[in-house]
């Protein structure tokens, strides 16, 4: 069964066998993240804040490597559709080389300059918090090479149409992190060092599963260790050419989100709390966006590789409609149960009441966000990454952030102004994506 009931899906990536593991993986990761946050919160209020900031920096660092992770996934999906096994093997080998070289370099730099880097982002922090953040950050950075390699290989398997192995790897990885977080923090008293160590253990475990699977796939992917360390510039340039605009895009977008969050904090403690509740719930109700983006990226890559241009838009609209229905369902549930959900994150009646009154914005953000993610993923699969980068950057930096300032600090709308600016920005990006998508140029780009 595909996204809709039909005799055969347009591509294997639209089948239940591919879609279910993707949805399960993302949902499971979200759930485990909540449980781990509960364990970490037992260290101390300052440690929790320190770990939260360090994780934000790690997120930005991880985004920088999307040049390799997403670029590899797109290239592999195209090569699968073309039946180019030799090209796919070369892509896997060279993406491994690029990942090892770049992650080891960045890890070393972050370990050497951890203290000044954290002081830059925590200029007014107390010494205890800064010390906790530095210790956690240094240990956590030791997991970076394992994390990025696991992301690269997961993207390779999804590009080949196999979403089950990334699911298994992610489940094992998250369970290991949950177990070792509990042991290291609650039982052994390692505190922030334990939280960082748990990340190293889990990411080694997740990577190990995929590496073992790759070795067993030698008949399909005859990867040679010696070739990994013999760089082939043309293959490396293809990966970077596709992925570099994605890396810039993600960095600009994440930077814009950080500034928007800072504006929310500047509104004051009460309104900042309301904003955080809505934003947290949006992470759950908007999960269909990530699922649909992953599915359509693989499907369109395969269809483009097979030159089945007539089926590409059909697949895109199927995923779009299914995602909108799922987002509408989750958003409606959140609106119906808004008061108990808001009460789960705050015990202050005024904060709960103010948050519950704004839950309706989830429906608009999920709808516009879903459209943006589905269009952008298809354009990326076609190699039209520069257009997506420009559209995203303009939407965040030239629309969302100025409107946030105007609505919140000039017109005094408060928290609703933050979400109004975001929805307008997403709607503009959706329209720009639709205009590009309706043309044909993006389908015929060379990658």
What does this molecule look like?
The structure is a single chain. By secondary structure, the chain is an all-alpha fold. The chain folds into two domains: 1-231, no CATH class; 242-447, no CATH class. 82% of the residues lie in helices and 0% in strands. The protein has 19 helices and no strands. The chain has helices at residues 16-40, 45-64, 66-82, 85-112, 114-121, 127-141, 144-159, 164-187, 191-216, 225-228, 233-266, 269-285, 287-305, 309-336, 338-345, 349-356, 361-381, 385-410, 415-438. Helix 3 runs antiparallel to helix 4 (85-112). The protein starts with 15 loop residues before the first helix and ends in a 9-residue tail after the last helix.
Radius of gyration of CA atoms, rounded to a whole number? 22 Å
Structural class: mainly alpha
Number of domain units? 2
Total beta strands: 0
Which ranges are low-confidence, i.e. pLDDT below 50, for 5 or more consecutive residues?
A: 1-7
Topology order in helix (H) and strand (E) letters = HHHHHHHHHHHHHHHHHHH
Shape: globular
Quaternary state reads: single chain
Helix count, DSSP H or I runs of 4 or more residues: 19
Largest sheet composition: none
Distance between the termini: 31 Å
Quick overview of this protein structure:
The chain has 447 residues and is an all-alpha fold.
SSE arrangement:
Elements: H1 16-40, H2 45-64, H3 66-82, H4 85-112, H5 114-121, H6 127-141, H7 144-159, H8 164-187, H9 191-216, H10 225-228, H11 233-266, H12 269-285, H13 287-305, H14 309-336, H15 338-345, H16 349-356, H17 361-381, H18 385-410, H19 415-438
Helix pairs in contact: 1-8, 1-13, 2-6, 3-4, 3-7, 3-11, 3-13, 4-7, 5-6, 6-9, 7-9, 8-9, 11-18, 12-14, 12-16, 13-14, 13-17, 14-17, 15-16, 17-19, 18-19
